[in-house]
Design a protein that fits this description.
Layout lengths: L2 E4 L23 E5 L7 H5 L11 E3 L5 E7 L2 E10 L2 E7 L3 H6 L1 H4 L14 H9 L12 H9 L5 H15 L1 E2 L14 E2 L3 H6 L2 H6 L4 H11 L2 H5 L6 H8 L7 H11 L13 H10 L6 H8 L6 H11 L19
Helix pairs in contact: 4-15, 5-6, 5-9, 5-12, 11-12, 13-14
């Protein structure tokens, strides 16, 4: 994997709010290029990190550029990546810039091995043929995936995305570097640090629509933030066990986290409301499949069950809904 650095440690002035996100980024950042293996699809690789269309930590633009704000071990950082020809160009700002560029190949799937996957069903064969550039990202950061995953427990994605947006914008901080450009809220935000999460009062969780069960789980996790972050360097089984030591974090949440933080190709999500029916419908025509049936259908992909699931979801082969969608609640109005 090729890569090179170009550092420019200059203060990061803000761009005008009407700046074009396709223009070269502010030169105050530090830069790196990485040449991915072919085929490669940057949008597919980074897509799972986005928590809804208005995620304050993530932006994707029509020119193919992706902006992402993270709280790294070195501090807040902003990363911009875009593919030009066969090269991914990256630029980063803030105290966490060097850390983000050091981790860039892993984030973009350099440690993933798609050749280890052998499709066993015609639908999966076709999905892989249509999406050959899929690789599994690895952020190396646990809390930034754990907290939004806890927010997504037992609620609609609309509720969870709203809570994440409100809490990050109110209690996080503006991301370093230039604003990415026009659109829905062009200012990126870095999520709060562990201490700030722990200090959020109960009424602020309530106003964001987060019930006491989920907020308590997050508070328990951030109190042992260092131990949680250590899971990013563990084998997936040990990492899942570490996460599940926290009351309120079960196999569903652990899998959702490790898919992103560790790039775990076998971290299959169990306990999901819709996924068993989707897998059952796609692979066996059984829209009423439960977790046990789903795991049986995915057994031929042992070691690669998460990748198989991603490809099935990307195929678009999902059953028509027969029941009303889960009701969207707003506990802040109760």
């Amino acid at each position: 994997m090729a890569g090179r650095f170009a550092q420019r440690p200059v203060p990061s002035p803000r761009r005008p709010r009407n700046a074009d996100p396709a223009d070269p980024a502010d030169p105050a950042g530090i830069r790196r290029q990485w040449t991915p293996p072919e085929p490669y699809d940057l949008g597919l690789v980074l897509g799972p990190l986005r928590r809804g269309p208005a995620d304050p930590t993530f932006r994707a633009y029509p020119d193919g550029s992706v902006w992402r704000a993270s709280r790294t071990p070195a501090g807040p950082g902003t990363l911009r990546v875009v593919r030009r020809g066969g090269v991914v160009e990256a630029e980063a700002w803030g105290a966490g810039a060097a850390w983000m560029l050091d981790q860039l190949p892993e984030l973009l799937g350099a440690g993933d091995d798609p050749d280890a996957f052998v499709p066993r069903h015609r639908l999966v064969v076709e999905a892989q043929r249509r999406r050959p550039g899929l690789r599994l990202c690895r952020t190396g950061l646990v809390l930034e995936s754990l907290i939004p995953s806890v927010l997504e427990q037992k609620v609609t994605t609309v509720e969870a995305y709203r809570a994440w947006r409100i809490l990050v914008r109110k209690h996080g901080e503006p991301a370093p570097g230039p604003a990415p450009g026009p659109g829905y809220g062009d200012q990126l935000y870095v999520m709060p640090d562990a201490r700030t999460w722990a200090m959020i009062p109960s009424w602020e969780w309530h106003k964001a629509g987060v019930d006491a069960k989920r907020s308590s789980t997050i508070l328990r996790a951030v109190r042992v933030a260092r131990r949680m972050e250590e899971a990013a360097a563990m084998e997936p089984e040990r990492a899942a066990a570490r996460l599940e030591l926290i009351p309120g974090i079960g196999p569903w949440t652990a899998a959702e986290v490790l898919q992103r933080s560790n790039g775990a190709p076998d971290a299959v999500t169990v306990g999901d409301l819709h996924l068993p029916g989707i897998i059952g419908h796609a692979l066996a025509g059984d829209r009423d499949a439960d977790d046990a049936a789903m795991l049986e259908l995915l057994a031929p992909y042992a070691g690669q069950r998460h990748r198989a699931t991603r490809l099935i979801l990307l195929s678009g082969r999902t059953p028509a809904r027969r029941a009303p969608r889960m009701e969207v609640r707003n506990i802040a109005r109760l």
